[in-house]
Design brief:
Number of helices: 0
Low-confidence stretches: 1-20, 73-79, 240-244
Largest sheet: 8 strands, antiparallel, barrel
Distance between the termini: 52 Å
Strand order of the largest sheet: 8-11-12-13-14-15-16-18
Number of strands: 18
Shape: globular
Mean pLDDT: 80
Number of domains: 2
Structural class: mainly beta
Strand content: over 45%
Helix content: under 10%
Radius of gyration: 20 Å
Order of helices and strands: EEEEEEEEEEEEEEEEEE
Length: 254
């Protein structure tokens, strides 16, 4: 009989504080997610695991359960991966060391589900920096500058094996007029001595408060890539950068 494992999730940490506590039951490729504050009891026997939510009972045979995971409030729960198959996503719990600063240029739009976007269009160069990588818990800090925009994420989750990696993180953005948005983002590539080969950068609009209708719709996805296949290592320019391509758009939420 297959044994199920009770674990505390370590991955997908999110410093922005918009994730919530969950209990996750994994059945192979199927994931069942329950909001912890709504769970009244978790019980198990040698044959079954039961999640109780008030009067609702969800029972899973132990033989079918791979793991039960508790995800704390400072951690980010990955939804069904919206980026696959539009960009490489590298699974695995032995990602390479990706620390360093890299320049994504020329930066082009590879894929979009918006009808008025044009794959192949040029966008502003992007500087990416990974630092404070934790090779045990598979997390890494991240920041990026593109034209006049800046973003960062603390303890982002990194997966992969060999020289291939994928970093997942959430961004919570705000505008002066009170507009807010939440984006799921992913960066994938292959680390080399020179930089990151075949870099892809994707974002997915997960949620928003948009009283003036200026943001792209929830569910919008854009994926960018380095068009010459190599994002070379470079010096971090600092937050004073205004870019060499100010006439080109950024990949922001609009």
């Amino acid at each position: 009989m297959k044994k199920y494992i009770l674990t505390l999730a370590l991955g997908m940490a999110c410093a922005m504080g918009f994730a919530q506590d969950y209990v996750i039951v994994n059945q192979g490729a199927t994931v069942h997610k329950y909001l912890l504050k709504e769970v009244t009891a978790i019980s198990h026997t040698t044959n079954a695991v039961t999640i109780e939510q008030g009067e609702n009972l969800y029972t899973y045979p132990v033989a079918d359960v791979d793991s039960i995971t508790f995800v704390e409030s400072h951690e980010q729960v990955m939804p069904d991966n919206p980026f696959d198959p539009y960009m490489p996503i590298y699974d695995g719990d032995t990602p390479p060391n990706i620390e360093g600063c890299y320049l994504n240029t020329p930066n082009i739009l590879y894929y979009s589900n918006l009808s008025n976007d044009y794959p192949g269009a040029s966008y502003s160069d992007r500087y990416l920096r990974f630092y404070n990588q934790d090779m045990i818990n598979n997390t890494v800090d991240y920041e990026s500058i593109q034209s006049t925009s800046y973003e960062y994420s603390i303890s982002s989750y990194v997966t992969g094996s060999g020289n291939n990696f994928t970093v997942f993180f959430n961004i919570l953005g705000t505008y002066d007029d009170g507009t807010t948005y939440k984006q799921l983002k992913a960066i994938s590539g292959t680390i080399t001595e020179s930089g990151i080969a075949n870099l892809y950068y994707g974002f997915y609009m997960q949620d928003k408060y948009d009283p003036y209708g200026q943001l792209v719709a929830i569910g919008t996805m854009r994926i960018f890539m380095d068009n010459d296949g190599m994002s070379y290592r470079t010096a971090w320019p600092g937050m004073t950068l205004r870019g060499n391509n100010n006439n080109l758009p950024t990949d922001n939420a609009k």
